[in-house]
């Protein structure tokens, strides 16, 4: 243990003055250490006391006697942080009892003198201690007060800056700001808020926040308010209307926040409000315009779809809700528009809209204009089909009276498609499509009536739609294939060739015949690539038959159908030549079949490519002959070499007895054809008797189930082999 | 301009401050009647409170010297309070004149007083900041300017962690501070506890109640809970012990019984 402040040069031999001084210090230290606040160790503390003890000792013996040093000892105690007055009391006790004992033994002074001096030293110590403690206390009080002041002014400067910034925001804000206490009494509002409420501050201030109700308040608005003032919610944001002083309505985007005090207790509510009255009006107007038809004022397609979707939502208003939809298209409206002008047409539409509106006034009923002369009426509820057909009947009845426009009575007729069913099963688009299809059914049945949706009819129409969209990828995916139906010489029954018939192996619907998809391909233009593919395949197949049967005399020929669109295609000749050359097939082995109707009214431009092909040696067959106008005079100038009699003629041959008129007609056609150097092919031969009769009539070739059904190319191959035997 | 009624108050010296109460326990006069009144009330339950504070000061002195002896001469003293005699900078600068000391306190009066005391003292500064927001402390110009965080720092959390409630996430605050310090840094902690107090818990609880009525509730923690503040450091000998038992200069038996209240320890960051 080290002891600081040990005076150098003094030896502390036992019993000597220095040793006695140290023993005095030890007693002193032990007496006052427990009442000091020092953080020094006891030894360190005694180190502080030692010089003080030495001063006392010296003063006790000094000549002349002076109490001044003892005052400094008292002050020294304070310096050593002996600020507890008990430390003084205990110190004086130690001095009184031990100073003379430990420091006065070798003195030349008499004992009474020493006692008297000791007493006076104690008085001086007490004085010095008291003075020092008073000074120190004053100094420290002053210091802490100064610190508190400086801290406070720093805080105030910061607060003032904050307040100035806040004030600037508060006064200059474009949004209304209001502060109220938790009872709803307004504490502050800014000018913007006053202006929003009509400009009279007193009007705003006079009312409690909780009185600012409006009939259009959302049900949650006041619940949120209560939660906030109870301190259960820090903030909420709502759209809220208020009455202004003049009774007009102010719409606001309102954000309310809870302000808490330093202890976290809810204290005030702060409202920030943005005036959205104008924006809301504009929004409502835009919304109206966006959802209503400008001409008739009826709800438009958008609004109708919203309502329909709501009506179709599963369980929207109970388990057994149903809907009924009437889709109306006016019959012959285009003719009125075209002949009497759009303004008459428009006035007619307005009148129709009014009458329709009057038909659907019940709850859950609505009428909308989808566009043009298409209207819909919707009914919802649980009435079922009777309700829906009753609505359709009302609509037809309403249209029965002619509409007067410009003194002219216009008869109005319409076709209605009615769809009825339970909610939750179909989408709005599906329902509308069904209604559309059904409406067309009503229209094609003569119009001025309604038709009820029929799932099977829908399915057919929907399939047609599905096939059309699937066609392009079907070609890419190789879903088409070709079957061949043999053409047979009637005179000897030998195989003459085969007609290529395209099939679609549809992934869902199975194998589809050309009647199912060729019209669709015609409509979409896909017929051109599809036709080219068929031509390529058939020509390649004909060539491979030739290669497989080099021995059989006349090479097998192949018939390929040409659609009207292909006929008009500018690359018809070039493509055909290209296909033949690539396959290495001579033109004479190809016969292109063109329907009679495709050539009706054909001019020279249209016939030119056919003529070119005929000149090259390609046979051109006139398909389905006898179903069109059968313009016999025209036959001469067509570049055809074959007539294919329609199967309706061969059907006549099946009857018993055979219709003599049919016989005469066929005989005449064959004779005419032969005189024009045209070969005659008959289709649809199903019996031996038919075949015999047709041969007797002079027909050249035939095809039909009697000989063979359409089949895979190797079937033809085997038929040919059979011939050869 | 009229001050808005809802604006927060500035410095409120009508509320007792733990720094000034601490000064009062140590016989100082850097305090106001409101502080003295609270301190006297607390002492009704624990008359030996001044002895606890004294032992706390003594431990801090020893810990600072221990740091200097181990070549850690940078000090970050958070919750430094009112600097009275024998403060960290005095002890540290006496041991090594090149020592660096940054005091941190969230009591504006304590900070203002520290500024006055430190005027003209090179190598020492004070930051007004809160232990609950370590990032504010670490980013302060005083810390970045005075301390070299690439070298070890003695982080002093002496008699301050027990003023943070668990909701203040004191453990995370300590971890965040330690994370910013170099390996070899020291964590110096004293913490109040019911363990070691020479009166029953009910009586000691009276003091806790007094502090609860100030803005700084006192949170007593168990030895195990206090030990967890040292996660990420290794406790130096003799570990987490009562204050007089931590590397004493003299025989601990001579200490006042109150001095053994609570725990003290020093951890070294690996």
From TrEMBL, chain A:
It holds the Pfam family GGDEF. SMART domains: EAL, GGDEF, PAC, PAS. Residues 162-232 form the PAS domain. Residues 236-288 form the PAC domain. Residues 464-724 form the EAL domain. PROSITE patterns: EAL, GGDEF, PAC, PAS. Residues 321-455 form the GGDEF domain. CDD domains: EAL, GGDEF, PAS. This is Bifunctional diguanylate cyclase/phosphodiesterase.
């Amino acid at each position: 243990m080290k002891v600081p402040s040990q005076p150098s040069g003094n030896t502390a031999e036992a019993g000597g003055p220095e040793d006695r001084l140290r023993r005095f210090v030890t007693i002193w230290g032990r007496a006052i250490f427990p009442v000091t606040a020092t953080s020094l160790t006891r030894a360190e503390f005694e180190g502080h006391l030692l010089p003080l003890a030495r001063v006392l000792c010296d003063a006790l013996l000094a000549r002349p006697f002076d109490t001044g040093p003892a005052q400094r000892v008292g002050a020294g105690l304070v310096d050593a942080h002996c600020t507890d007055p008990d430390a003084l009391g205990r110190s004086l006790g130690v001095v009184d009892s031990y100073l003379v004992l430990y420091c006065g033994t070798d003195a030349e002074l008499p004992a009474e003198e020493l006692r008297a001096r000791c007493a006076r030293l104690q008085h001086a110590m007490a004085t010095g201690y008291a003075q020092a403690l008073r000074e120190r206390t004053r100094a420290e009080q002053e210091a802490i007060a100064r610190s508190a002041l400086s801290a406070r002014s720093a805080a105030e400067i910061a607060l003032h800056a904050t307040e100035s910034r806040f004030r600037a925001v508060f006064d200059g804000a474009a949004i209304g700001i209001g502060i109220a206490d938790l009872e709803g009494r307004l504490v502050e509002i800014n000018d913007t808020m006053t202006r929003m409420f009509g400009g009279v501050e007193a009007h705003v201030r006079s009312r409690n926040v909780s009185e600012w109700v409006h009939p259009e308040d959302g049900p949650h608005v006041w619940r949120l308010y209560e939660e906030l003032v109870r301190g259960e919610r820090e903030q909420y944001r709502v759209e809220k209307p208020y009455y202004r002083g003049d009774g007009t309505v102010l719409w606001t985007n309102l954000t309310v926040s809870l302000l808490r005090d330093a202890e976290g207790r809810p204290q005030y509510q702060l409202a920030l409000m943005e005036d959205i009255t104008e924006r809301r009006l504009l929004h409502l107007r835009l919304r109206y315009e966006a959802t209503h038809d400008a001409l008739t004022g009826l709800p438009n397609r958008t609004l109708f779809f919203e309502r329909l979707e709501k009506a179709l939502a599963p369980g929207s208003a109970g388990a057994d809700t149903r809907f009924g939809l009437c889709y109306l298209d006016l019959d012959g409206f285009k003719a009125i528009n075209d002949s009497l002008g759009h303004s008459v047409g428009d006035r007619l539409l307005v009148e129709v809209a009014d009458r329709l509106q009057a038909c659907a006034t019940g709850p859950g009923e609505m009428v909308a204009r989808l566009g043009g002369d298409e209207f819909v009426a919707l009914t919802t509820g649980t009435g079922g089909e009777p309700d829906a057909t009753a609505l359709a009947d009302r609509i037809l009845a309403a249209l029965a009276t002619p509409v007067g426009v410009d003194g002219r009575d216009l008869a109005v007729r319409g076709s209605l498609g009615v769809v009825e069913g339970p909610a939750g099963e179909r989408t709005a688009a599906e329902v509308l499509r069904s209604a559309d299809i059904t409406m067309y059914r009503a229209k094609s049945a003569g119009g001025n009536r309604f038709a009820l949706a029929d799932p099977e009819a829908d399915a057919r129409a929907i399939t047609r739609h599905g096939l059309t969209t699937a066609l392009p990828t079907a070609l890419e995916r190789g879903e088409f294939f070709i079957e061949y139906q043999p053409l047979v010489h009637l005179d000897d029954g030998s195989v003459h060739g085969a007609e290529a018939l395209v099939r679609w192996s549809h992934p869902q619907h199975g194998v589809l015949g050309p009647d199912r998809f060729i019209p669709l391909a015609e409509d979409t233009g896909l017929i051109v690539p599809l036709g080219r593919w068929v031509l390529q395949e058939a020509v390649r197949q004909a060539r491979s038959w030739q290669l497989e049967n080099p021995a059989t005399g006349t090479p097998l020929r192949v018939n390929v159908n040409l659609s009207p669109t292909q006929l008009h295609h500018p690359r018809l000749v070039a493509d055909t030549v290209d296909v033949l050359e690539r396959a290495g097939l001579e033109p004479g082995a190809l016969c292109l079949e063109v329907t009679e109707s495709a050539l009706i009214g054909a001019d020279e431009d249209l016939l030119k490519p056919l003529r070119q092909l005929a000149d090259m040696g390609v046979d051109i067959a006139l398909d389905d002959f006898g179903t069109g106008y059968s313009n016999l005079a025209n036959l001469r100038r067509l570049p055809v070499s074959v007539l294919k009699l329609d199967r309706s003629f061969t059907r006549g041959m099946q009857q018993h007895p055979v219709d003599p008129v049919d016989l005469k007609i066929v005989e005449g056609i064959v004779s005419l054809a032969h005189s024009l150097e045209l070969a005659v092919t008959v289709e649809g031969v199903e019996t031996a008797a038919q075949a015999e009769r047709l041969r007797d009539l002079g027909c050249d070739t035939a095809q039909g189930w009697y000989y063979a059904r359409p089949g895979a190319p190797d079937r033809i191959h085997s038929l040919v082999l059979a011939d050869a035997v | 301009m009229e001050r808005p009624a809802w604006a927060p108050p500035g410095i409120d010296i009508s509320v007792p401050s733990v720094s000034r109460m601490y000064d009062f326990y140590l016989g100082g006069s850097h305090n106001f009647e409101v502080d003295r009144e609270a301190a006297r009330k607390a002492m009704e339950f624990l008359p030996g409170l001044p002895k606890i504070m004294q032992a706390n000061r003594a431990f801090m002195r020893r810990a600072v010297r221990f740091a200097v002896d181990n070549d850690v001469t940078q000090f970050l003293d958070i919750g430094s309070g009112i600097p009275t005699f024998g403060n960290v900078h005095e002890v540290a600068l006496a041991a090594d004149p090149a020592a660096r000391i940054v005091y941190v306190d969230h009591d504006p009066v304590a900070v203002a007083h520290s500024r006055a005391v430190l005027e003209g003292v090179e190598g020492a500064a004070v930051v007004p900041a809160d232990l609950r927001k370590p990032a504010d402390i670490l980013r302060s110009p005083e810390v970045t300017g005075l301390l070299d965080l690439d070298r070890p720092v003695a982080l002093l959390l002496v008699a301050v962690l027990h003023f943070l409630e668990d909701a203040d996430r004191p453990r995370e605050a300590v971890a965040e501070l330690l994370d910013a310090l170099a390996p070899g840094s020291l964590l110096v902690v004293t913490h109040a506890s019911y363990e070691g107090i020479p009166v029953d818990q009910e009586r000691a609880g009276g003091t806790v109640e007094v502090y609860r009525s100030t803005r700084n509730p006192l949170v007593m923690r168990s030895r195990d809970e206090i030990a967890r503040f040292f996660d990420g450091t290794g406790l130096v000998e003799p570990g987490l012990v009562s204050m007089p038992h931590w590397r004493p200069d003299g025989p601990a038996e001579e200490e006042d019984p109150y001095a053994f209240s609570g725990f003290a320890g020093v951890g070294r960051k690996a």
